[in-house]
Specification:
115 residues, mainly alpha
Amino acid sequence: MSFGERLTVARKRRDLTQDQLGAAIGTTRVMIGKYERDLTVPSIDVASKMADVLNVSLDYLVRNINPESETGPKLSPVLVQKLEHLESLSSKDQEYLMAVIDAFIAKSKLESIIK
């Protein structure tokens, strides 16, 4: 995922508009849009301000990982966005969701044994 994609995901997860994020870090909606479309890259100071406002680590925003060199499971950007949104759910809703996920995993394992 590119810097712009990670920025967009983090901004939307915090329910901020480009205008709101721009105002919070002292820039404009136009610049936020350019960052999100990967047309330009912010300075480290600006990226650090973004990370603070978005409540993410600077590492999350700026890391440039080659998917082929990553270890572990490959997650689609859509799945990552959904997983990040789960943090905003109540703990009770998170528990329910985990139970549903566990049930699907168990079902899948059972089906693979039966085949």
